[in-house]
Structures are given as structure tokens and as C-alpha cells.
Design goal:
The structure is a single chain. The chain is of the alpha/beta class and 341 residues long. The chain is built from twelve helices and eleven strands. The protein has two domains: 199 residues, Rossmann fold (3-Layer(aba) Sandwich), CATH 3.40.50; 127 residues, N-(1-d-carboxylethyl)-l-norvaline Dehydrogenase, domain 2 (Orthogonal Bundle). The strands form three sheets. A five-stranded parallel beta sheet has the order 5-2-1-6-7. A hairpin with a 2-residue loop joins β9 and β10.
Length: 341
């Protein structure tokens, strides 16, 4: 299978190596220091088993150089998808599958809804992640297969990724159909020694992952604390529980039931250990975060379903302002600006 992964960061890079070692013809779209490092040394993933290196079919920053693919994986963050839309057609043939791997509620959430899940909202655009509707217009819904990313990885140096734990990438058609293509896609992941169960309700799995992300990510960004500390401290754990109950109420009004209890979801996060969430890593690096996909969308859905979410709204307000502050501090000074000694 010809696979192109757009975004060779922690998750995209880890997945590229595993799929390449599983026999797929993998190309990656990268940029900057990551692009240069992979071209020079190959893609390297460090895990408990040691350092693995994969040479890929193609490493480039130009989508058109990769050519038509059987599978395109969007492994960048939610706010980074729109800029690649113009180049995306270069990667597509009539049957190309697109697998978005963004955290949070995806832009396609109300596309290809199963009949049982609030068809009144069918086709609605989630403005938190797709403000102008560009993603909904630019990516054909028929191409999308949903995916939830569970592995924890970190980019430790250009071209070097540390795999912390997890191998699960549940897959599912948005309409719940068990199609030949999603089964074939799961086989490709399995050949790469990854776990890719095919689910009939991928949205319920999205909510299960989001349930932790929408709480632990902003709390960690504001406190600079790793996952285990947030779960152990009674005050932050209590805040997380309140946010999770609010989110659960929103999900219930959209026909979503969680398959694990709240306490088990928190225990799972604590088990990851002293891992910095992706949002905390972004804040420390002075980058934009996934605040809209992880939290803004939940607030949008709360308003849509008339569900009060005061704790989620408070965390959103604080984290959004924090993001603005760190990004402004990280931005280069305008030309001619004098810097204090």
C-alpha cells in the first residue's frame, strides 16, 4: 500500500516507522529541522526495545512530489490541516482513503452520521475547528475513515521520537459500516504490529479519548504538571472529575455512551506516569495548541445541546489566554524594535 503521512512529528513519525517496517511504501511530508534530520539519518524511534531506524520511500516538504497514494494520514494538529488543503489533491486518486489523526472533536463529526445519531445535525460545520467551512468543503466526506490515536510519544530531537507507551489506533467508518476498505486498512496496521480494531461507533471512541484530553491537557498546560501528578493531587483530580461529568452530559445528548466509568478513565491517565501532555509541550515550546479541537468544540456542542459546562468554560478561557501570551512572547521582535539589555 502506498501511504503518505503529512506531519512527521511524534505520532506521525512513530506511525511512519512502524508502517514502513510492516512493508508499506511510506512517504512523509515534513519541514524544517525534522525534514533535514530524516533525510540525513532516517527516521528514528526510541522505545524500551532500543532505537529503531527506518528509511522511507520519500521525505519531502512538497505534497506534489509524493504523487497519488492509497492512504493519506493527516498527522498534524487540528489547526494545521487547513493550510495543506490546496496541495492535497496531488496525493489523491479516485479511491484514496484519508485518515485524520487529530485529537479532539474532528471537523467531520456531523458528516456521514449513522441514522441513530441525531440526524438533525447532519452536515453541521463545527466552527471551533473549521471556522470558514474550508475543511468541510475541501475534503470529500466519502474518503474519510475515522481514527483515535492512543500511543504516547514525544519528539526528543529532530528526527528522533521516543515511544512512551501504547499501540492502539482504533478505526471506523463515520457511518458505522464495516466496509472492505476499513478492514483492509486495519490489516495494514496489524502487519505493522499495531492494534487497530474496527469499530462500528468511532464517535464513541473519539469521546472516550477526548474525555481525558479536554481535562488533563488544559490543567497540565496551566499547572506545568505531568499526568500522574494531576491525577494524584486531590484538587486537580477533583477539577478533572467535574469537567469530565460536564462533558459526559454533552455527549449523552448526542447519543454517546461511555464504555468505561469515569474513575477508570482517570486511572488510565495516571498509569501513563510523568508524561507531559501535548498541550503542555506546545506551551513550553511557545507554539499554538489544540485548545479549540479539545475544548472549544465541546463548548460549541454544549451550546448546541443547551448543556451547562461552567468548569470547562473557565479552563478554556484561562488556557486560551495562556496560549496567546506564550505565542506572543515567542514571536520574533519586529524589525527595528529595540530589545532591553
Amino acid at each position: 500500500m502506498r501511504i503518505c503521512i503529512i506531519g512527521a512529528g511524534a505520532i506521525g513519525g512513530y506511525l511512519a516507522l512502524r508502517l514502513a517496517r510492516g512493508g508499506a511504501a511510506v512517504s512523509v511530508i515534513a519541514r524544517g529541522a525534522q525534514l533535514a534530520a530524516i533525510r540525513q539519518h532516517g527516521l528514528r524511534v526510541q522505545s524500551a526495545a532500543g532505537m529503531e531506524t527506518a528509511r522511507l520511500k520519500l521525505v519531502t516538504d512538497q505534497l506534489h512530489e509524493a504523487g497519488a497514494q492509497d492512504l493519506v494520514i493527516l498527522a498534524m494538529k487540528a489547526h494545521q490541516v487547513e493550510p495543506i488543503l490546496d496541495g492535497l489533491p496531488h496525493l489523491l486518486h479516485e479511491e484514496t482513503i484519508i485518515v485524520p489523526m487529530q485529537n479532539g472533536v474532528p471537523w467531520w463529526y456531523f458528516q456521514r452520521l449513522p441514522p441513530s445519531q441525531h440526524s438533525a445535525h447532519a452536515g453541521r460545520v463545527l466552527r471551533a475547528v473549521d471556522p470558514q467551512g474550508a475543511l468541510a468543503r475541501g475534503i470529500e466526506p466519502r474518503r474519510i475513515v475515522g481514527c483515535v490515536v492512543y500511543p504516547a510519544c514525544a519528539l526528543v530531537a529532530p528526527g528522533v521520537i521516543r515511544h512512551i507507551e501504547g499501540e492502539r489506533f482504533p478505526l471506523g467508518e463515520p457511518d458505522g459500516a464495516l466496509t472492505p476498505r476499513v478492514k483492509a486498512l486495519a490489516d495494514v496496521f496489524t502487519q505493522a504490529e499495531l492494534k487497530a480494531p474496527v469499530l462500528e461507533d468511532i464517535r464513541a471512541e473519539i469521546w472516550l479519548k477526548l474525555w481525558g484530553n479536554l481535562t488533563f491537557n488544559p490543567i497540565s498546560a496551566l499547572t506545568r504538571a505531568p499526568l500522574d501528578a494531576i491525577c494524584i493531587d486531590p484538587h486537580t483530580r477533583g477539577l478533572a472529575e467535574k469537567m469530565m461529568r460536564e462533558a459526559q452530559a454533552v455527549a449523552a445528548k448526542l447519543g454517546i455512551a461511555f464504555r468505561v466509568p469515569l474513575e477508570q478513565r482517570i486511572a488510565g491517565a495516571q498509569k501513563v506516569g510523568r508524561h507531559k501532555t501535548s498541550m503542555l509541550q506546545d506551551i513550553e515550546a511557545g507554539r499554538g495548541t489544540e485548545i479549540e479541537a479539545l475544548v472549544g468544540t465541546v463548548i460549541e456542542l454544549a451550546h448546541l445541546t443547551a448543556t451547562p459546562v461552567p468548569n470547562i468554560e473557565a479552563m478554556y478561557a484561562c488556557t486560551r489566554l495562556l496560549q496567546q501570551s506564550v505565542c506572543a512572547a515567542a514571536a520574533p521582535a519586529p524589525a527595528g524594535t529595540a530589545l532591553a539589555a
